[in-house]
Predict the 3D structure of the following.
Amino acid sequence: MKKIRYVVKGMSCAACVSHVEHAAKKVVLSENFGVSLLTNTLTVTVEDEVDEEKLFNSLRKEISLAGYGLMREKTGKDSENETRKQNKSALIRLIASCILTISLMYVSMGSMIGIPVPKAFYENALIFALIQLFLTIPVIILNFKFYKNGYAALFRLAPNMDSLIAIGSSASLVYGIAAIVFIGYGISSGNDALVHSYRHNLYFESAAMILTLVSLGKMLEGRAKANAASAIGKLADMMPSSATVIKDGVKTEVLIEEIKVGDIVAIRAGEIIPVDGRVISGNASVNESAISGESIPVEKEHGDEVRAVCTLTGGYIEIRAERVGGDTSFSKILELLEDAAASKAPISRLADRVSRIFVPIVIAISAITAAVWLIFTHDIAMAFECAVSVLVISCPCALGLATPTAIMVATGRGAQRGILIKSAEALEDLHSIKYFLTDKTGTLTEGKPSVTDIIPFSCEESELISAAYSAESMSSHPLADAICKKADEMGVVKKNAENFSMVLGMGIGAYIDGKPCFVGKPEFLFENGVKAEESQFIYDQMETLENEGKTAVCVSFDGRFMGIIGIADKLREDSVKAISELKKMGVIPVMLTGDNEKTATSVAKSCGIDEVYFRLLPEDKEKLIRDFSKKGKCAMIGDGINDAPALAAADIGIAVGAGTEVAIDCADVVLSKSSLSDAVAAIKLSRATITCIRENLFWALIYNTICIPIAAGILYPAFSIALSPMIASAAMSFSSIFVVLNSLRLKIKNIGFENKKTNCPCENNKLEIDKEDNDMFGKNKTVNFSVEGMMCEHCKAHVEKALLDVKGVKSATADLASKSVTVVVKDSVSEDTLKAAVVAAGYKA
């Protein structure tokens, strides 16, 4: 079996997707293809021996009959160049449309609002009207695709949003042209009343404005879709382009595509593993966050399995390749992302569903109105005026604004709170989720280890931390970073340490003031001659910490057991409250993690989560998401690359802002403050927005239900009441204003946001200056140096983070092209300190 991807041209909404799917079903079985509105693609799975040319021609024929285009997918630079060319063309058309529409509004309404307009423009009614027509026609030509697609869908009896746009714009245009005819007739016949009547009944600005605003919205939507679709490309860029292969004892650098199963690959500290394999020599610490999402490196030795795109943070290993190319775990993540994007069911917009019935009915009523007036009165002018009034008053502006205005206000309010909602679909879907699936590391927790417990044995806490700090300051392990950070917070002084040694998986040793100090597992300390009178008590304390999901390390100095330090990835401050709030809202929280059972169950219990799944790989998370989706709508929140397939597969993917760029790109919602409470607020915001949208649609339809019969002249025989197109247009404008005002209520509606305490120094009008960090209390300097080993964006971020963790560093910017880094740092910080931080991160400075 093989997969073939085609580009579909002309899709703009969920209705379009269903039309393309219906056309494709005539050629391919429904279970063998998928249509993606995100990427505008049709992916077909066929047998290897299928004639691709014949398949393409058959699909193109059926899809063309449905009103859409089909072309083969271009790859590489050809695809990028074509996309860039299309975007540039769309931008030029939009700018031109805006200039023409603003000019049109100036001519038609300038004198009404007191803006000076040349007398030549409005003294002669015919010139006044023709100028507006000449400004409108270019806008229509620039945006003619709405007419083409909208009317094509209408003629196929499957109207979509483009149909609403086309009929609203063209109704105004047709009436404006008819008005010009009557103005010309009035001038030639000397009928000033007729001329005066129609010079104020021109609706060209409506025809142009509808097209221009929709074009702006389409461009913004297209850019958002392109950014979401680029996540796969960013993931692929993480894989190194080359690797070191050992053949006959000789190390040779080869392209990654040339590595075969069974090859021996050498990986040094700071390098990214290029294939899945098994360690045959050496030992090292491996950061597996790209696959498992866990921040603490895992020790690897002979016989252990390693996976592609994981980074060696220390040591050296040689591995035998077992899965290469498209068979690696990393490639499966890419495939899962592509499949999730293609199979994700597009949301049918409420306005699209309503328009299927509304538009044909309005056209029918307009035609019937004209026919009835002609039959009973033989008054052509009255018949045309009533028919056009029906079209103008039922112009689907209010219907079209019902959803986007509410969404615009809601997304704006969300952005003010750090909730970035990428699409209208995401905002619609959030309100009805049943399951809230959350990652652990970096989502429920802070994502970095920190000291939680200090248990001294016959010494002071500061003595215990001082010994551990002095020894661990020479290590690059994340647990060492946690101890050093705690020591800094306590103001503990670091003592001179030398003769540093490390035993992977056991602990570290060093001599402090000539006396031995060991930090690690108790067995490691005992093997090095450390004595402890109550060894069982030590093991009991460690078991207690480990049952709480913490990592326990023992410390000794000069042969004396000093105590135990508990280290864990702390819960975020708002995690417990957020989970409790979700339960009150009727949403079921579930935890998915790649961590071990003890840690997972401990964190879940602390948060109040009853259902937890542990030791999960990315494909496991993605499968669980699909299983939960069968039981109800689900949201997934995460921050790592390993969460990307699950975020893409979920009905709603939520990424925390401190997460990886790929996870953020795959998500539908991004929480810039990395606060779980904001996820709760996003759901509340969605529920308020959907209520507002339904109110808007209700009032828009009620308005049409009442006004269309009046515009058709139903009251004229009894009460001589008829609506002119001008009054109809005013009524139509009022309905639109009503919808917008109702949407603006979201700005003041209580949707459950809580006032959060910020760390802003200006809070409560108090200005607090941190003397440690403010330039007026110390000069800064700029330091530049080369860094060897940076191979990708992941490496770049790793180096920058290592430098930013150094006290006194203001900023750090790494450049992959020049393999260098620029650091702005306090004068008191030495260059050796900066270089040591880079070396500790696994690179050469």
Notes: Residues 470 and 546 are 25 Å apart (CA to CA). The chain has a mean pLDDT of 78. DSSP finds 30 helices and 27 strands in the chain. The radius of gyration is 34 Å.
